[in-house]
Specification:
This is Succinate dehydrogenase subunit C. The protein has 301 residues and is of the alpha/beta class. Helices cover 48% and strands 10% of the residues. The strands form 2 sheets. The chain has a 4-stranded parallel beta sheet, sandwiched between helices. A 4-stranded parallel beta sheet has the order 6-5-7-8, sandwiched between helices. Helix 1 packs parallel to helix 12 (268-275), helix 6 runs parallel beside helix 8 and helix 9 (213-229) crosses helix 11.
């Protein structure tokens, strides 16, 4: 058993509180089941998903320095459950810590803007960590495996990491950014079978969707077909934006590529929580565009 309970400053992000509400629900259900305490940062702002820096790097850094400072006020690590939020906020944290170590005037500029708005300064005293890596490195795969009450035997899961999780930051201390294994190791810990395929570490196409929709959908379709051809029962992703492109837009993807797909796309906490005995209803598995019924039937529901 864990020697002490885990506690995090929880940054839910925008998508999990809107279009992917089931991610918010399943993260809450999973962490409660594991005894992990989340202190939600209700005053946090959108990370910008990489768009703020198109207009101003200072804007992206200041907004996210404030988000990190909210976690620092609690003396807790900032926990994300979105690959994009992790990549953006994590990279800002890296950049500002570099400024801090070199006594750069830039950090003073960022903190000056925060002070002007009555916000706490960025101190560089915490870390930004995705739920996946909190579970793997802080909680531990053995501990999770010991809590499994419903082995996901015979379920073949294809990971889709999201490019922001793997390569937006300069360093990746918890995994290999080009040949990651954290999700596959998690699948094994809960009894599922990992499926390896070419697209698992590539971009889902979401960043292109607003101006090159067909190209975005072709990318998503290629990844889904690749997973299907390698025997996947579902794709599992730690990124709600990837989920939107692969699940919510799958019917549109099918029209563009002129091929029926029908592959369920699960959020990572949904899959883990299922193995821990949480009901599909509590996890919002009825909220998906592509039906998750084939996955549930294979698990005996």
């Amino acid at each position: 058993m864990l020697s002490q309970s885990l506690k995090y400053a929880y940054y839910p992000g925008c998508v999990a509180q809107g279009a992917c509400r089931e991610l918010y629900l399943s993260t809450q259900a999973l962490t409660q089941k594991l005894g992990i305490e989340l202190i939600e940062l209700k005053k946090a702002a959108c990370c910008g998903s990489g768009t703020f820096k198109e207009d101003s790097q200072l804007l992206e850094d200041t907004v996210n320095a404030r988000n990190i400072a909210l976690a620092e006020e609690l003396n807790l690590p900032l926990l994300t459950h979105c690959s994009t939020c992790q990549g953006v906020i994590g990279h800002v944290d890296e950049r500002l810590k570099e400024c801090q170590s070199s006594n750069s005037a830039y950090l003073n500029q960022v903190n000056g803007l925060l002070q002007k708005e009555g916000c706490s300064p960025y101190r560089g005293s915490t870390e930004v960590k995705h739920l996946l890596y909190a579970l793997v490195t802080d909680y531990g795969l053995e501990e999770i495996s010991d809590r499994v009450t419903r082995k996901l035997s015979n379920l073949k899961c294809a990971a889709f990491y999201g490019c922001y999780l793997l390569r937006a930051q300069k360093s990746m201390p918890y995994d290999d950014p080009f040949q990651p294994e954290a999700m596959e190791n998690m699948f094994r810990a809960i009894g599922a079978t990992p499926v390896y395929y070419r697209g698992r570490t590539q971009c889902c196409g979401w960043p292109l969707s607003s101006y090159a929709t067909n190209e975005s959908f072709k990318m998503a379709g290629m990844h889904i077909q690749d997973a299907l051809e390698n025997g996947a029962d579902c794709i599992v992703t730690p990124c709600p934006l990837c989920h939107l492109n692969l699940d919510s837009r799958q019917p549109e993807v099918e029209k563009v590529i002129e091929k029926k797909l029908g592959l369920p796309i699960l959020h990572l906490p949904q899959l883990i929580a299922l193995a821990l005995g949480v009901s599909p209803q509590e996890l919002g598995l009825d909220r998906h565009i592509v039906s998750t019924k084939p996955v549930l039937e294979k698990l005996g529901f």
